[in-house]
Design a protein that fits this description.
The chain is built from 5 helices and no strands. The protein has helices at 2-7, 9-22, 30-74, 76-83, 88-115. Helix 4 (76-83) packs across helix 5.
């Protein structure tokens, strides 16, 4: 029978329309609707309460990155002479960049685990 339906689009369309007309959607019980609404309300409240902490975390991270960058810029020549020559500052900068990536990755990982 499926071969006939595949070869005859009008019969397939008619069958799909009949199936759609026969389908009667079932609404969940009022208790289930209320329970889901309560869960959504609690999740929204949790997000509202945690929003200032998230903003502060981002602000502290940005401020810390700016502070480290400022220290690097101000002391660039001294860092170069302590690291030993012309390639020294790039080595130190690479270390700071790697540390920043590890810190950002750990913070993102922590946040993603908290939302699961």
């Amino acid at each position: 029978m499926s071969d006939n339906l595949q070869n005859n689009d009008s019969r397939l369309d008619l069958l799909i329309k009949n199936m759609a007309q026969d389908h009667q959607p079932q609404l969940p019980s009022p208790g289930v609707i209320w329970w889901r609404a309560q869960i959504q309300k609690k999740l929204a409240e949790k997000e509202r309460v945690e929003r200032p902490m998230m903003i502060m975390r981002v602000a502290v991270l940005a401020l810390s990155a700016a502070l480290v960058l400022g220290i690097l810029v101000v002391n660039w020549r001294e860092i170069g002479t302590m690291a030993g020559g012309d390639s020294g500052p790039f080595f130190v900068l690479g270390i700071f960049a790697a540390a920043a990536l590890v810190l950002a990755g750990s913070l993102l990982f922590k946040e993603s685990m908290g939302k699961s």
